[in-house]
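Human: I would love a firmer grasp of how sequence relates to backbone shape in proteins. Could you go through the record with me and say what the backbone is doing? Here is the record:
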Amino acid sequence: MSITIINDNQNSLKNKIDYVKKTFLDYVGSNNSQKNLKILYSQLENVNNTDYDIILKTDPKAIDFFSNKSVYNINNIKFFNFENESIPILFHNNFTEPFIFDQNRKQLTIFIDIFASAFYFLSLWDEYVIKERDNHNRFIGKNSLLYKLDFLRKPIVTIYFNYLIFLIKNYFNINIQKRNSYASLTHDIDYIKKWSPGIIYRECIQYFLLNRLNVNFRKRFSRFYEFLKAFLIKNDPYLNSLNKIIEFELKNNIRSTFFIKTGCTSKHDVSYSVKNKFVKRKVEFLKEQNFDVGLHPSYKTYNNEIIMKDEKNRLINLLNNDKFGVRQHYLRYDINITPIIHEKLYFIYDSSLGYHDVEGFRTGFSFPHYLYSNQNDKVLNIIEIPLVIMDSTLEYYRKLKPQQALNVIKEITNIIQKYGGVLTILFHNTCYDELDYPGWGSIYEDMVHNFINNNIQILTLQKILTAYFNS
């Protein structure tokens, strides 16, 4: 099957819609149907050209909106119904019906501007025009339009594309195969060992003697006792947790992606050397066992190409390979700078785009996709595999108990199964530390068993890329 999409806009929407068009066609992939379909994306009031099967109407308000670099007014949203759900649409031509089908011409006209609306989310337009950031210079998920719409947990761009595919199937009898859904387990190795001098001082002086946690003596003594047990048996919790993750995944015949640090630029980094014999042996073992290894650049790299390049080169020397992905430490990400650096340094993918404070689909799309530079108005040659859930989001920022966190993961798993997508999840190598993260190791295992029981294939991020773009 061949789908041809013509974008007749020669204005501020031209490059933007071409980008969405590319993302949609990547999503459709290759199909066996012999039929050809022609779609015109047009702002013209009356399009009578029967050469086109589908007329997708441009909302003129979208042209002005993106030209003016505006913040979207949530009151302008309308809703349409799809799969028994009310779906928000940003640009809509003030439709009465979302589409009409001309039986004589066999031509479908769609009035809701799903391409301009999709661009808003795919390009992270919120982050381009809203300047507020947290103390780590990160965009706050709760400031996003998707969060305000209570739609962050649902992949709105995937839903838009699914709606267009639904109409194509129903009115042109073209069978477009549904994409497979996957889970991808990832681990940021921020620490190799827990028992640094600073942590020992914290446990002995700040927590036990000075009671910085402000708990009663029984709880204070109980924590100190558990600390002494863990410390004296010389089985470091983070090292032990790393080993347990690997053993569990090998036992269940699954592979994940490990992001390794090679630099330290801030007090928010914990330094460990990739020249350390343990680190070298562990990374070599991961390679031998077909795990995916990527770079976890240090705190200050997200806007510094020179430092990131140096850290990448260290990992190249360790892996003897320059084809790997990246995830930024602390999820620090400037949409005007970070993806440009990733592109220049030829990372094969990034998986930093999840919010630190709330779980969900930051770009609105649940599959890998190329990124877009609003500043330069062009597609970037860097692929994003969005991060959907992070353990510290649920545990630290959302203050959820382990079982509550598992329920959230199961809910989003159901959403992935309904709409399709890649559920990329980050669990740090702290999850089996029963002193500070009691119960989280069990939640990790329960989550994986839930994927297996629901026949959701688990792949590394590199395998995800191959599966998506080669199908």
Residues 195-234 form one domain. The mean pLDDT is 93. The chain has three domains: 2-172, 182-192+236-469, 195-234.
